[in-house]
Write a structure and sequence with these properties.
- The protein has helices at about 5-40, 45-60, 65-70, 80-105, 110-135, 145-175, 180-210, 215-225, 225-250, 255-275, 275-295, 315-335, 335-350, 360-380, 385-390, 405-425, 430-445, 455-525, 530-560, 565-595, 600-635, 640-665, 675-700, 705-745, 750-755.
- By secondary structure, the chain is mainly alpha-helical.
- It has two domains: about 5-190 and about 245-515, no CATH class; about 525-755, Up-down Bundle (Methane Monooxygenase Hydroxylase, Chain G, domain 1), CATH 1.20.58.
- α13 packs antiparallel against α18.
- The longest helix is centred in the middle third of the chain and has 69 residues, at about 455-525.
- The protein is globular, with a radius of gyration of 32 Å.
């Protein structure tokens, strides 16, 4: 047997391990979002509970392994070489596709991805076989398209039903308990716990154990025929236990419900979705073993058809346990799993804050329509009813700054479990990701988590995620089709190219994810006390002054030497600086002012001005650098020596101002601050002279149109930088003086402790 097939099996094994990692990163949101969002327990407790569920679920892996072998194509129509290429194309595509979704923090369906990757690769390999063999068969003889169509239908059904049911149940539950649910839960808590845990138990048994290697068909059949009785006894048992825990042992049973639901969903994920990650590898490994047996008996594996893959299969416990261990490690270590979870929690959270998504015309129209409908209902609704409804939705401060309370978390888990169980019993092709996400979004809408300050962004976020789902099938099919066609056409060389390409893509996506998370962390920075405020502001001002001089010098050097690399470097630095201070102004200032507890109005006013002046400087710096790079990149005429000298004089004066102020800042002696004002007037006067000289050059036709436009823009933006720099320095001096006044007379030990802690 050609060694290439052993290499393919080894590559499939490596890709399966990677797929487990990226798959967990994507699907962890299904069972983690309610626990993390409600902060039901410390993170390590949540992850421990989820890990136990994953390990148990991997041992209960269902009989869904056939989907990778014969779910969407007929294996008896494919030869051994063809089917190995098919499986390799699927795994290469799946790893990259899921990793890209994880990189941008967007949850998608691993089931839909797998099915359409299998379909795309099978179509590619089948078409290639038809073209090269001339067998006279058609594509329909190779492909089982009914499965794919059923899943597409399931997508639309599950999205709509989950959102509507989640909204309705959440609204009714909030009317019953309100946000201040302590008193009402004292009487109804045990009953609520019994209903929730019975639903979760039903989900865990019916969805998690069906097809398990540890549960016999007879046992499952008995449970199905006696399910009503079993559920009744389960409900009574759980209700009694919850009553004892709540009233006798004073246990917060909502936490028990949420953690139990987390474990159940984690178990179901591992038990049912494991096929999405290792099913293709196991199918390829079994194909390799079948071919080995045929080759050993003298058969021709090139013409061997793989009809034996249609036979029922039960995966070996060792493979399942190994996959479970990898999933647990990925759960604890994968940063991308946190990103996907954060997306859902961020969209579902209660209250305002930094929004990940922008608004769109559609989201704005939906919010506008909802507001108009709400106003119309308010006019016809009796005042007493309106007052009652408002009282039930009156918000309270959540413990530990949680994104939502335990009532909503328990509803998310219970409704998700019920809907997935119902869909399974009706043999509907549901996606656990779609159901859990849309239940969470529906409950957050009904819970009035989407206020007028955030609704357009949250709705657009949901629309973005749903659009990604609808594109998943198309992208998975198209990408897998292209990869499959390339592999069967290019053979060994194509395999090597694709493996290298996948490694490069994964490396690039990891860097992109790190960069995106770094930017998000900058958005989330909130200064909570005076020490942090002063320390951060001082560092930012010094950084800005230093970067402004560096970037301005690069602009002048780039123009003088017509060096694209230098100009590009200046543009990159200016853009980064602009984004930094734009984000600081948009995402830090107001939350910081809200969080600072001390009464330091004058200090806070100077802080706001510091940020505004810094932003204006970076905006002008960005305009200068971008215009310069475009000018050089378009190969326009070089600046004259006189023009460069003018710009260097501006830089020299600006540098002198910055250096003078830097010395004052370091020494704390601002007695010579008048020098800053005088230098500012000198530069402004110089800018006026430069403008006149440029006008003279234009009159004498010594300068082209584009050359003149750029030079005048540089002069004007330099003037703005000068004025705003002077304002910044003055405000920074006042800022430090105000802080000195505010700490005068305070306990020095307390101040030192604040500095040490921060």
């Amino acid at each position: 047997m050609d060694s290439i097939y052993l290499i393919i099996v080894i590559v499939l094994l490596g890709l399966a391990a990677l797929d487990l990692v990226v798959g967990v990163a994507n699907d962890a949101v299904n069972f983690l979002n309610s626990s993390i969002g409600s902060k039901v327990a410390p993170l390590w407790v949540i992850f421990t509970v989820a890990s136990l569920g994953v390990l148990i679920g991997s041992m209960f892996s269902s009989g869904m392994m056939e989907i990778a072998r014969s779910g969407v194509f007929y294996p008896e129509k494919f030869t051994f070489p063809a089917i190995m290429m098919l499986f390799l194309a699927v795994m290469l595509t799946d790893v990259v596709l899921l990793d890209l979704f994880n990189t941008f923090g967007l949850p998608t369906s691993t089931t839909v991805s797998l099915v359409f990757e299998l379909l795309g690769a099978a179509v590619a390999v089948a078409l290639f076989s038809l073209w090269t063999t001339g067998s006279g068969e058609n594509l329909g003889d190779y492909i089982n398209s009914g499965k794919a169509l059923a899943i597409i239908g399931g997508i639309f059904i599950s999205i709509a039903i989950a959102f509507v049911v989640g909204s309705i149940i959440m609204y009714i539950s909030r009317l019953i308990f309100s946000f201040n649910y302590g008193k009402m839960f004292k009487y109804l808590g045990a009953l609520w716990g019994g209903i929730a845990l019975t639903s979760i138990t039903y989900f865990a048994i019916f969805k998690g154990l069906k097809g398990s290697i540890l549960v016999t068909p007879e046992m499952l059949s008995y449970l199905e025929y006696n399910m009503g009785t079993a559920l009744l006894y389960t409900f009574l048992g759980w209700t009694l236990l919850m009553a004892l825990l709540q009233h006798l042992f004073r246990v917060k049973i909502l936490k028990v419900i949420v953690l139990a639901g987390t474990a159940a969903l984690a178990m179901a994920f591992a038990g049912n979705d494991l096929v999405n990650f290792i099913g293709v590898f196991l199918a390829g490994f079994d194909s390799f073993q079948i071919a080995q047996g045929v080759a050993a008996s003298g058969g021709d594996i090139q013409t061997l058809h793989m009809g034996r893959l249609s036979e029922p299969v039960i995966a070996k416990t060792g493979w399942l346990l190994g996959a479970g261990v990898i999933m647990v490690l990925a759960l604890w270590l994968s940063k991308k799993s946190r990103s996907v979870t954060e997306t859902e929690v961020n969209l579902a959270r209660k209250g305002e804050g930094v929004e990940r998504f922008s608004s769109s015309p559609l989201s704005r129209s939906l919010v506008r329509g909802s507001l108009n409908f709400s106003k119309s209902m308010g006019k016809i609704m009796p005042a007493q009813v309106k007052s009652f409804l408002e009282s039930r939705f009156e918000p309270v401060e959540l413990e530990n700054k949680a994104s939502f309370d335990l009532i909503r978390a328990s509803i998310n888990l219970t409704i998700s479990a019920l809907l997935i169980s119902l869909g399974t019993s009706l043999k509907l092709p549901l996606s656990t990701t779609y159901v859990t996400f849309m239940v969470a979004m529906g409950s957050s809408l009904a819970d009035r988590a989407w206020g007028r300050e955030s609704a357009v962004y949250r709705i657009n976020g949901v629309l973005t995620v749903v659009a990604g789902w609808l594109l998943t099938a198309l992208v998975a099919f198209t990408a897998s089709f292209a990869v499959g066609l390339f592999l069967v056409w290019g053979g060994k060389i194509a395999i090597a190219i694709m493996v290298i390409l996948v490694i490069l893509i994964l490396f690039k996506s990891d860097r992109l994810h790190t960069k995106r998370k770094s930017k998000e962390l900058q958005h989330q920075q909130i200064l909570s006390n005076e020490v942090q405020l002063v320390t951060s502001s001082n560092e930012e001002v010094r950084l800005l002054l230093d970067k402004t001089l560096t970037t301005y010098k690069r602009v002048v050097d780039g123009l003088e030497s017509e060096n694209r690399k230098v100009a590009r470097k200046a543009m990159t630095e200016a853009n980064e600086l602009y984004i930094k201070f734009k984000d600081k102004r948009d995402y830090e200032v107001v939350p910081t002012l809200e969080s600072i507890q001390v009464n330091a109005l004058e200090l806070e006013q100077e802080y706001v001005q510091l940020v505004d002046y810094s932003y204006e400087i970076t905006k002008s710096l960005k305009a200068i650098s971008e215009a310069t790079f475009q000018y050089i990149d378009n190969n326009h005429s070089a600046f004259s020596k006189e023009q460069i000298n003018d710009l260097r004089v501006v830089f020299k004066n600006l540098s002198d101002v910055y250096t003078s102020y830097s010395n004052m800042d370091i020494s704390g002696d601002y007695s010579n601050f008048d020098q800053v004002t005088a230098m500012r007037e000198t530069i402004i006067e110089l800018n006026s002279k430069m403008t006149k000289r440029q006008i003279k050059r234009v009159k004498e036709n010594e300068s082209s149109t584009r050359n003149s436009i750029l030079f005048l823009n540089l002069v004007n933006e330099s003037k703005i930088i000068t004025l705003q720099s002077s304002n910044l320095m003055k405000s920074h001096r006042n800022f430090k003086e105000q802080y000195a006044k505010s700490v005068a007379g305070r306990d020095p030990k307390k101040l030192i402790m604040d500095v040490t802690l921060n």
